[in-house]
Amino acid sequence: MNNQATMQRFSLNQITTEQWGLAEAIEGSVRQEVAWMSVWRHKLHEYGLKEAKRHLSDAGLSLSSLCRGGMFSAGTKEERVRRIEDNKRAIVEAAELGTDVLVLVCGPGATNDLNEARSHVEEGIEAIVPYAKDHGLKLGIEPLHPMYAADRSVINTLEQANDLAEKIGKDHVGVVVDAFHVWWDPYLEKQIQRATGNILGFHVSDWKVPIVDMFKGRSLMGDGVIELKKMRKRVEAAGYKGPIEVEIMNQLLWDMNGNEALAQVIDRYHSYV
Amino acid sequence: MNNQATMQRFSLNQITTEQWGLAEAIEGSVRQEVAWMSVWRHKLHEYGLKEAKRHLSDAGLSLSSLCRGGMFSAGTKEERVRRIEDNKRAIVEAAELGTDVLVLVCGPGATNDLNEARSHVEEGIEAIVPYAKDHGLKLGIEPLHPMYAADRSVINTLEQANDLAEKIGKDHVGVVVDAFHVWWDPYLEKQIQRATGNILGFHVSDWKVPIVDMFKGRSLMGDGVIELKKMRKRVEAAGYKGPIEVEIMNQLLWDMNGNEALAQVIDRYHSYV
């Protein structure tokens, strides 16, 4: 295992350069020799699926994942069906773009009954598994930090994601390890080991005190407390050697020139991941 | 099990009426027929231990706990020893005031090595157990929400608190269940059951979206998503029938007249706990 992550594994999660549209992000990535990207659906829809596919292909960029499916829980059966349909569209888009992972944010949060919301998530994933299978795609359950349990995700630990992946079936469902969401977990090492062979993605950013914004509170690697190299080595020991997505929601980064933001992100990646 | 918590179990955690000094809080509690209080050490020191003891006794108030010991982890051996000494002073104060529980906030956070910080906490608790025993006191490990792992507590789930209490010894170490910190936990029910007979306190407040401040982000019961009645019944089923502390850090509440704030808190307690 290397003490430094290679540029070959660097993936730009598009939210990190929110100031860019998809075309700009593709061109900016090429300029700085980025090999992988993770595309967000709202940016994809702005640009158009066919245009995006052609542009990514011409640029020689590979997709580490499509962000995101999920958001299964809702108060009515009709709304839950509608959301499952939207996940099917996401699967089609992911397959069309040539990525093999659809990241699932398993929310939204618990507005009323937490157990019920969690049941909706399980039912939603089960409903789309056959569809993902038909499209040659894996579903990556990404547990979100417990501070999002009320409004963004009711899957909040890697243990819970592992439980769900094992229950629904690891042939088509895996887990995504995002450092920001899981770093605090006292049982993280054990749960990463348990996920061996079933980790579909690894995301990095940092946790800096104070967290000034619940959504845009992430920091550049090196600015916070997360022991990223240690976590990367654990994830590698569990068999994951794929792209490492840098996913940072941070207003200061978004206010910068996109090229400068990306250069800084790559620099921090080399030093701290 | 009752569908409503009784006033006999209501305890005013003093931080809820931060606008009051201890003397005011005692008098305010008496006016509204509060039977229990939890006292914070900085307020106690302002007032003086002997004065406080006499005033509480004259008012007929019982102490549900003293807040707080803990804060064991530190970069140097000298600093850790200093903190253990401070915990011993807290034990003396708690015993003097006649409460049998010292709440431990097991921080501060992980500034460098998270596992090391957690080791410091374990060593710290082990160091003060004999002292607590001599003073007839139990130590209550209160897991704090994972969003405080970097700056306030490295014990972040009830499972972790249970592990620690069982390892160090349940004769003198138990757990404190604070709804705000643990409500999101997918394994909460199991861990409350596991803590049967070893729960030393139950704290209530609410989680309202958005959380506007990491420390002062708690809301009045009923304003957020936590299913408090369900949690109370689980804690009762695990044998805890003691005082229920209302512990709310909230600037709006602190900006109110103390009597009005307490009246509102009691009203919400009756409706939502």
TrEMBL record, chains A, B:
Keyword vocabulary terms for this entry: Isomerase
InterPro entries: IolE/XylAMocC-like, Xyl_isomerase-like_sf, Xyl_isomerase-like_TIM-brl
Residues in coiled coil: none
Pfam families: AP_endonuc_2 (PF01261)
Domain Xylose isomerase-like TIM barrel: 40-257
Keyword tRNA processing: no
GO molecular-function terms, A-Z: isomerase activity
Protein name: Sugar phosphate isomerase/epimerase
Organism whose genome encodes this protein: Shouchella xiaoxiensis
Source lineage: Bacteria, Bacillati, Bacillota, Bacilli, Bacillales
